[in-house]
Amino acid sequence: MSEYMIETKNIHKSFPIGNKETLEVLKGIDIVVPKGKLTILKGRSGSGKTTLLNILSMLDDATEGTFLIDDEDVSKMDSSQKETFRRYNIGFVFQSVALVPIMSAYENVDFGLKLAEYDGDKDARIKEVLGIVGLGGRMNHMPSQLSGGERQRVAIARAVAHKPKIIFADEPTGALDTAAGIAVMKLFRELIDREGITIVMTTHDPNLMPLGDVVYSMEDGMCHDATIVESNN
After folding, report:
1. What percent of the chain clears pLDDT 90, i.e. is strictly above it?
2. Residues with Cβ < 8 Å from 127, sequence gap 6 or more?
3. Which of 28, 51, 90, 127 is 20 to 30 Å apart from 112, CA to CA?
4. Domain ranges of the chain
5. 37-46+77-232: CATH, from 3.30.470.20, 2.30.29.30, 3.90.550.10, 3.40.50.300
6. Whole-model pTM over 0.90
7. Is 177 helix (H, G, I), strand (E, B) or coil?
8. What is the DSSP code (8-state) at residue 140?
């Protein structure tokens, strides 16, 4: 069994731009993501980091290349198999929190568990994850009654509630102030320790790099060698 949650080989992604021309956004990406760690894809807007994240999370397909998630060659799955794999094994956190505004924090997490067809004790799990993210006393509050940082914490609780193998987070601190952003990153670290989960996130914020375990720098569709952050290992 591999020590890596994700292994990619020669991932390319091109988009048609008219006149039979294409724009190559990813240019042969080879990375490994260790299990139970926080891996950061850093880079400026247009570097290709979100495109890569979308491919790794199976929201989009690569033009060329293959990759494994937990030793499974997901690049060979059909769309139905990918959807099933995502439902049970993957959680998502986005910059735009996307909570259901007419549902309380508790109900938003419950909604996520229903979508993932979670068959455990839903009530106990909802209370557990909202407690982990520090919102045990605000589970009946509506999104409009919560701060931006608190709403992102609910989104993280929803993403982790069904016990996925991996969470993909696209600029999860991008809409937050520095203090709230660092709090979210520390929460990610706690989730890794408590839940054994693997997290892959994108960011352009240099202040967050020391809080990762592995940092890949992306520029112009290419990924440079990983930096190992020793203090977190």
Report:
1. 74
2. 136, 139
3. 51
4. 37-46+77-232
5. 3.40.50.300
6. yes
7. coil
8. T
